[in-house]
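RECORD TYPE: inverse folding
INPUT: structure tokens
STRUCTURE:
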């Protein structure tokens, strides 16, 4: 990127191919236009304007793409061919794990590689995904930088200052050069090896902060991650944030122009982890969040979530908390509406509510004929603004009930027209859940609500094919045993071996959320790519599986309960239930690990 003249002086090479954003160069990058997650790069080359489109927007990936472009041009390849091929560039992935840490900390683990470019990306991730004010970096020697030692660590120090890092714990012989460049406001400590750090590990000093672990694989920083993790139960629920982003984009592509997206994050984001998912959704520019109860909304506000939040099941005792935490209630009955009108504090100039109308689901909601009475009541206090009118379809994704869905929409339209005529303004309207977004697009109105679809489940086969599974539930094989023919397995002697048999005891039971009905051969799990049946009754903390056909299975192996294969839909069918019940049944003692492949 340096000017050609300077490069010639430093290298002695006269025929140098260079690129730059400012200085004179062979390839002069003039402009970067960001479109969603893609970039259009416009440049000047040999006196003419050329451009490419790449599937990235972050600075590090753009820089990598520029070097590719330079090489292809240097090799004399056709620009049209180059432009076509650059569209298919793939990111250099980094797997960033995001999990709950000790002492109310948040832990971001990237103990797999260490270079300057990936450090910048990881620090951006830390800044975007943490609600903590204090930020700590645990870092090893940095390899493969191409820079001299002092220049490298001077750049690192500048980066840490820009990204508002408060504390650095550094490990290695080379990284000691960092100390001289760190500003005085960044606390620091240095250790020659990971073993030395673990021997003097300051566990109690980590409190209510975000911790990024960034180390080259040879340093074995996974041992540090284990010490800082809040739970050590070997059963984990992995939450793939890239899959979340993909699924959001799939549904957004189904929406008409201008339709807003509300995402339901009740029940701790369907068991995924409320704050972590909500923070990610905020970065994805979601318009609204919805929770079931006021307590859930308060937790999100305390965690720093600023998006509008609809509370689906408020009650009169929670009204003061609604006002305090800027939460918006769903009002579904006259008793609740009258109580709310009476409780609005005199100090409040305006407050937003959402009116629920029952069009046939027969859960919460006003009768469709109540519009006139509701309108009259709202005239009593003009500070109460109706942000939206909503209803819920009973079977939007079922073809056999399609006419009933149309009837629900007709009742909804009648209610809306009458109420809007009284209010003299038009609130947003929303009636569609995940299953209805693609099959009933005429009822998208101003907003739709996305729930289970976010996690990769949709009854529309065409949409489902584009979705990615978000959750992977994994256990481990704690022990392997050989049993003889005629011996029984588990409580109540629920299974008898018919031959000499190899069995595995795995670290998951019904207290973790594995249904007791999964036992006695009712579901398959995956071990080393092969299916294994659960045998005997599921116990509280463990289960037993048949390993007779998997001779290579060993103690400590991962066991996939559901994920890509078997999928949560497979498990739901085998257990005669629905994916909602499976996800939300996973207990809090199961460690949630959030990960994202970062370019």
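DESIGNED SEQUENCE:
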């Amino acid at each position: 990127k340096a000017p050609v003249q300077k490069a010639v002086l430093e290298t002695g090479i006269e025929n140098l191919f260079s690129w730059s954003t400012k200085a004179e160069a062979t390839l002069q990058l003039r402009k970067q236009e960001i479109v969603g997650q893609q970039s259009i790069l416009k440049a000047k080359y040999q006196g003419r304007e050329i451009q490419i489109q790449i599937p990235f927007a972050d600075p590090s990936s753009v820089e990598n793409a520029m070097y590719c472009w330079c090489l292809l041009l240097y090799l004399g390849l056709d620009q049209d061919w180059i432009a076509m091929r650059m569209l298919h560039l793939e990111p250099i992935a980094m797997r960033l794990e995001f999990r709950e840490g000790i002492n109310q900390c948040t832990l971001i683990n990237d103990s797999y590689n260490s270079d300057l470019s990936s450090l910048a990306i990881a620090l951006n991730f830390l800044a975007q995904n943490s609600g903590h004010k204090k930020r700590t970096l645990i870092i090893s020697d940095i390899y493969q930088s191409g820079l001299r030692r002092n220049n490298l660590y001077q750049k690192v120090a500048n980066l840490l200052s820009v990204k508002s890092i408060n504390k650095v714990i550094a490990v290695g012989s080379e990284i000691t050069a960092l100390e001289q460049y760190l500003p005085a406001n960044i606390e620091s400590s240095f250790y020659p090896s990971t073993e030395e750090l673990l021997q003097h590990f300051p566990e109690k000093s980590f409190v209510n902060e975000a911790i990024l672990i960034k180390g080259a694989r040879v340093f074995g920083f996974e041992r540090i991650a284990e010490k800082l993790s809040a739970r050590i139960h070997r059963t984990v629920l992995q939450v793939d944030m890239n899959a979340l982003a993909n699924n959001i984009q799939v549904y957004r592509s189904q929406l008409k122009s201008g339709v807003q997206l509300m995402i339901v994050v009740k029940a701790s984001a369907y068991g995924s982890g409320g704050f972590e998912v909500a923070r990610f959704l905020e970065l994805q520019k979601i318009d609204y969040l919805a929770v079931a109860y006021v307590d859930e909304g308060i937790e999100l506000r305390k965690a720093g979530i600023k998006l509008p939040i609809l509370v689906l099941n408020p009650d009169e005792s929670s009204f003061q908390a609604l006002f305090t935490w800027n939460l918006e209630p769903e009002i579904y009955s006259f008793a609740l509406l009258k109580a709310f009108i009476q409780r609005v504090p005199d100090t409040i100039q305006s407050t937003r509510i959402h009116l629920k109308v029952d069009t046939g689901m027969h859960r919460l909601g006003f009768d469709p004929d109540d519009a006139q009475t509701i309108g009259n009541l709202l005239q009593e206090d003009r500070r109460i603004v109706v942000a939206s009118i909503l209803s819920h379809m009973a079977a939007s994704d079922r073809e056999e009930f399609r006419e009933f869905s149309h009837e629900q929409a007709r009742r909804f339209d009648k209610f809306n027209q009458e109420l809007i005529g009284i209010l003299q303004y038009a609130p947003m309207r929303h009636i569609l859940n995940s299953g209805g977004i693609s099959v009933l697009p005429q009822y998208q109105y101003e907003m739709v609500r996305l729930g289970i679809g976010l996690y990769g489940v949709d009854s529309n086969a065409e949409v489902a094919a584009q979705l990615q599974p978000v959750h992977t539930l994994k256990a481990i094989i704690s022990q392997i045993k050989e049993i003889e023919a005629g011996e029984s397995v588990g409580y109540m002697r629920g299974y008898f071996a018919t031959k000499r048999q190899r069995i595995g005891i795995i670290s998951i039971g019904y207290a973790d959320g594995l249904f007791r009905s999964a036992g006695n051969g009712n579901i398959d799990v995956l071990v080393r790519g092969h299916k294994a049946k659960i045998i005997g009754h599921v116990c509280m903390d463990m289960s037993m599986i048949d390993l007779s056909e998997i001779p290579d299975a060993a103690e400590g192996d991962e066991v996939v309960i559901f994920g890509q294969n078997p999928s949560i839909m497979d498990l739901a069918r085998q257990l005669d239930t629905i994916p909602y019940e499976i996800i939300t049944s996973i207990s809090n003692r199961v460690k949630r690990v959030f990960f994202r492949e970062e370019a």
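NOTES: The longest helix spans residues 402-423.
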